[in-house]
């Protein structure tokens, strides 16, 4: 994420949370459940309100979720208190070279699913 995107999410976190939480994502959730083996350890990068992480957790996956924006992590705890202790602030930025597999080698899968709320 670049600085202007982070600023946007910080400034609009409450409205974005309402939009993200109102979107019906049954197809996405069914897809995620079908892709990962039952009980897999998953890392979600860019979790936003924690909607997908909470769904995966409730379906037996061991989930840790990250986001660049503290306000979004706070929103995730507000909407999905079961994620408390599973949310972490990250510092990944566009153009930064990182080795996700080495940094998070405890996980079976590291995925970022791009979803967009319709206005």
| Spatial gap, N to C terminus | 22 Å
Based on CA atoms alone, the radius of gyration comes out at: 14 Å
Order of helices and strands: HHEHEHEHE
CATH superfamily: Vaccinia Virus protein VP39
Give the overall average pLDDT: 82
Tell me the CATH architecture. 3-Layer(aba) Sandwich
Please tally the helical runs, counting DSSP H or I stretches of 4 or more residues: 5
Short description:
The protein has about 120 residues and is α/β, with parallel strands linked by helices.
Describe this structure in words.
Helix 4 (70-79) links the parallel strand 2 and strand 3. Helix 1 (3-22) packs parallel to helix 4. A four-stranded parallel beta sheet has the order 3-2-1-4, with helices on one face. It has one domain: Vaccinia Virus protein VP39 (Rossmann fold, 3-Layer(aba) Sandwich). The chain has five helices and four strands, in the order H-H-E-H-E-H-E-H-E. The chain has helices at 3-22, 26-35, 51-58, 70-79, 100-103, and strands spanning 41-45, 62-67, 87-89, 109-111.
Features of the shown structure:
single chain, 119 residues, alpha/beta, Rossmann fold, 4-stranded parallel sheet, disordered C terminus
Secondary structure elements and pairings:
Blueprint: H1 3-22, H2 26-35, E1 41-45, H3 51-58, E2 62-67, H4 70-79, E3 87-89, H5 100-103, E4 109-111
